[in-house]
Amino acid sequence: MIKVCIDKTLNGKEPIKYIENKENITNSADPAPRMAVVRDKLWDPGANIRVKFLNGESSVQQKVQNYATQWMNYANLKLIFVEDGDTELRIAFEPDGSWSYIGRDALEIPQNEPTINFGWLTPESSENEYSRVVLHEFGHALGAIHEHQNPSAGIPWNKEAVYKYYMGPPNNWPKDQIDNNLFRRYSKNITNFSNFDSNSIMLYPIPAEFTTNGVAIGGRNSQLSQVDIQFMEQQYPKIA
To answer: Domain 31-235 is in which class?
Structure first.
């Protein structure tokens, strides 16, 4: 079973995306492979970001906190977990999938509502699953998009196979949601990006049957790739 998170966007503020096609594949002048972020959703380098749990078991909360703070080894930001008061990020464990608003979009969400949700993490979830899901969702919270929607991705999707899979259980997505979450890439005009990184924590596995050339892309990535690390260091540099 492929568990993926959905794009969580502000009402009326859908990011600019375009339909997958060869003409839209562009290469950055920077040759280094990187993930991709939406520029105007990044936090200020050096920012303190307060985080609060709205619900959930304490053991699960502690594991989420432990994995989330791994990003802080590379990004010049500080996650401060608090128990009360206003916060920039709020975490819930509701059974409606896993998702996060992208970067500073979280600031527009009411204080009584979550900005990140972990819909399938339980005390019985494996450490590998915690690592995979928490690092991924907090990547979104820091401004990163799904790697398959990187402007330079150019994935040869077998669309009929993808529609058939995701329109069925457990996802039950309508066609337009599949188009938006999988096939449409972000515009190069609003993102920092370059080459596609198949090892990125922001990439979900794409099995061979989902591509027209029968080649699988990526795996169940559960650790930050070297590209992820280098990229976040560049986006959130240390202040001299």
So the answer is: alpha beta
